[in-house]
Amino acid sequence: EKLTVTNKQGITKSYLPNELKSFMLYYEGEKLQFESIDNKVFGVLMYVNKVKLVKINTRNYFIYAFTRPNSGKTSYMEGKGLSRRITLNEIKKEMADCPITIKKVEDDVLKVHGEEGVIELVKDYESNCL
Known about the structure:
The chain is α+β, with helices and mostly antiparallel strands and 130 residues long. It is 24% helix and 37% strand.
């Protein structure tokens, strides 16, 4: 919800999502890029090409937000349950403009398991419907 930075003198400054478009940090040797989503929340950038996919961590679940290039419209898909899986109904609702991708999920050709599955879902949507 906000980024708080402390400088060497101990002075802190907080930034809200409407004040920063993005920022990077290193955590346990890994570079993480955070993006502001709709000027409301920060999320970890997972994939970017035509579509930008960001994972938003909440206390109890993940929300995967993807932004379309032409309209700038952002869709949100909630990872539910202990496995944090996106339901078929949620995919149908947020990707209604892409029957090809929905059919692949329904036929179990495209499996949406874990973060890699969400990335593959968005890549398929991008290649078939944009």
